[in-house]
Amino acid sequence: MIIGIVGLGTVGFGTLDILTKEKERLEKEIGEEVVVKYGCALENPGLPEGVIYTTDFHDVLDDESVDVVVELIGGLTFAKTIIMGAIEKGKHVVTANKALLAHDGQEIFTAAKEKGVNVFYEASVGGGIPVVVPAKESLIANNIKKIEGILNGTTNFILTLMETDNLDFKEALAIAQDLGFVEADASLDLDGFDAAHKIAILAMNAFHIFFDFDKIHTTGIRQVTKQDMDYAKKLGYRIKLIAQAEKLDNSIGIDVSPTLVPMSDIVGNVMQAYNVVEITSDYVENVLFYGKGAGRYVTASAVVSDIMKTHNKELWTHDYTYTDAITPIEDSRFYVRSSQPLDIDYEESYSMDDQYIYITTKQNLNALKLQLSGVKYTLLKVRDEK
Amino acid sequence: MIIGIVGLGTVGFGTLDILTKEKERLEKEIGEEVVVKYGCALENPGLPEGVIYTTDFHDVLDDESVDVVVELIGGLTFAKTIIMGAIEKGKHVVTANKALLAHDGQEIFTAAKEKGVNVFYEASVGGGIPVVVPAKESLIANNIKKIEGILNGTTNFILTLMETDNLDFKEALAIAQDLGFVEADASLDLDGFDAAHKIAILAMNAFHIFFDFDKIHTTGIRQVTKQDMDYAKKLGYRIKLIAQAEKLDNSIGIDVSPTLVPMSDIVGNVMQAYNVVEITSDYVENVLFYGKGAGRYVTASAVVSDIMKTHNKELWTHDYTYTDAITPIEDSRFYVRSSQPLDIDYEESYSMDDQYIYITTKQNLNALKLQLSGVKYTLLKVRDEK
């Protein structure tokens, strides 16, 4: 597999880095050489030995040995030229370009079909969360009814900050901007267009339709007030920017709207820059995919899986090694309850009904048990803080 | 694609039903005929026209036209004979048999490799939740560090019932048994062996190892008391049966243990018979898969996706239809706030700081806006109750 990467910014460089570091393992997994032949960008970020640096994407497209073109420059103009050019040359394409696919998906996929090549785009929705491929392949039995999700990490970060730090929208936005969490064109995040691009892509695949992106009704979070957050909370809700797409009687309903989500609901517990996608369908009912929606290696992980997917691997390898070294996981925090006070390292404790209850620090189970010898106690594991 | 289904119980019949109802759509999706030729079981559940009923699995194995054998009888004896026989005959295998793969995975996968066939088993873990395939393919870039999950719906249902209905273990178990939620061999669920089978399969793939299933340290939920649940809750935790596997310094740590999980954590909010799997790795950090872990069509959905996966499809189809009918989703519950009391249909309401706050019943946005004409208000969507 010969790869050309066009765009060596955050995600492009992350992709190159993973392909370099994991080369041997990936080759073993797919049973084929994995070679990055070109890195194409306006500036050379320092390429590994053997990777040809070029500023001209035609070098990549014109090289007949290149099997896959990875487009990671973004935007609607050059990116489209590169993708259409790669398809024209019979090369597979991997892209994270949600705006382009939301706007020009029909043209791109139609061209790809004519040329018999694949365009893969797992990284365009939900960063590294597997959702595009699982929705298209793992849920193939199902007629999808509805997709809902928190698809923009920046706005979810701002909404979380408003809640946890008791800030109004402008104060939280300023912090998010200081942290570099907001795109150069802030409107993409704040007015819901980024989320709209992503729900457009998910809706396209789920409902097997093409449509004009501009038909999606999009409302962002600028008008969400701290006051409404507080009022909603009293009723058991959090405000989240929800993108949804649903099969209606005479149309496909799609919109992006700030929405009250019950706190008892998994989606209501998605905080910070995390993303979530919930898919409701006839056979599998509702399944939900959750993870970080952005980040160099997070998104590059999805790009790399798409690159590997262009290699038409016939068989799953199970070339695993037998091992005897299977043990319980003995380092953990523990819940310990006893009818006597205990001399152990703990994070939290209280006593009630003549019982002493402890959440210990992270420690070794066997060492802890030694400290408890002679004592009657109940002990359970405590999951690591996330 | 010619399919033989062996085992026509809950999941087997569900699989046959989906393959029958969705035949045309699936054929379009993979570009090949999808034919169920045999249904093999001790009793005939009533097969669709054209499907040959047999009680003898040799009929399926000996028919050279059969490409895929779907093993859904469960257990360690006949199921293994059928799977090994199918592999020997050069047929792909799809199975939901977690116990068999946990015990004899090495033998089965080694035989499959020799014969150049695939054994797929998405349905063996987490029912219909896509997790086996995404972990193996979508996360291919990553070195997986840790897997944690709620992998047994029955015990999670019992633990949820203990909490919500203030019951002790035996009372909740009796209800779960009345509802048919507990396996004939209750120990599989209650003592954690079912969860152990599933974490064994996930660990095998994540860490590329084979090992003896009996080395997994497994503790069930029999000793979980209502009292400890209440004490844990005061500290912000719920008790869940957690299966985990982790790369340790000198071993692979695997165990199944009742564990306190923070209520602020997504995993701590997985209730009823839902399952969840969280995978932590180097590039994509943590991703989480959630859904129903059991049920006829839920599990059959995963079986069908595996069957389709045995067809080595080269290209993704995007044979989608252009549509103009894209609308906002206007039927919803709404949050409405106003400085005057409103005459609208609502589920909940309260007033505070001279503001009147309503969660409306599900209704049409435009109809609601008509009722609010002349009133100054703030309006947001409210997500459907799950």
Furnish the topology, listing elements before pairings.
2 copies of one chain form a homodimer.
Chain A: E1 2-6, H1 10-21, H2 23-30, E2 35-40, E3 52-54, H3 57-62, E4 68-71, H4 78-88, E5 92-95, H5 98-115, E6 119-120, H6 132-138, E7 144-150, H7 153-164, H8 169-178, H9 186-190, H10 193-207, E8 209-210, E9 217-218, H11 226-234, E10 237-247, E11 252-262, E12 274-281, E13 285-292, H12 296-309, E14 321-322, E15 326-327, E16 331-338, E17 346-352, E18 355-360, E19 363-364, H13 365-371, E20 377-382
Helix pairs in contact in A: 1-12, 4-5, 5-10, 7-8
Question: Can you walk through the features of this model?
Answer:
By secondary structure, the first copy, chain A, is α/β, with parallel strands linked by helices. The first copy, chain A, has three domains: 2-124, NAD(P)-binding Rossmann-like Domain (Rossmann fold, 3-Layer(aba) Sandwich), CATH 3.40.50.720; 132-292, Dihydrodipicolinate Reductase, domain 2, CATH 3.30.360.10; 331-382, no CATH class. Chain A is 35% helix and 27% strand. Chain A has helices spanning 10-21, 23-30, 57-62, 78-88, 98-115, 132-138, 153-164, 169-178, 186-190, 193-207, 226-234, 296-309, 365-371, and strands spanning 2-6, 35-40, 52-54, 68-71, 92-95, 119-120, 144-150, 209-210, 217-218, 237-247, 252-262, 274-281, 285-292, 321-322, 326-327, 331-338, 346-352, 355-360, 363-364, 377-382. In chain A, the strands form three sheets. Chain A has a six-stranded parallel sheet, sandwiched between helices. In chain A, a hairpin with a 2-residue loop joins β17 and β18 (355-360). The longest helix of chain A has 18 residues, at 98-115. Chain A starts with a strand and ends with a strand. The relative contact order of chain A is 0.12. At the A-B interface, α2, α5, β6, α6 and β8 of A face α2, α5, β6, α6 and β8 of B.
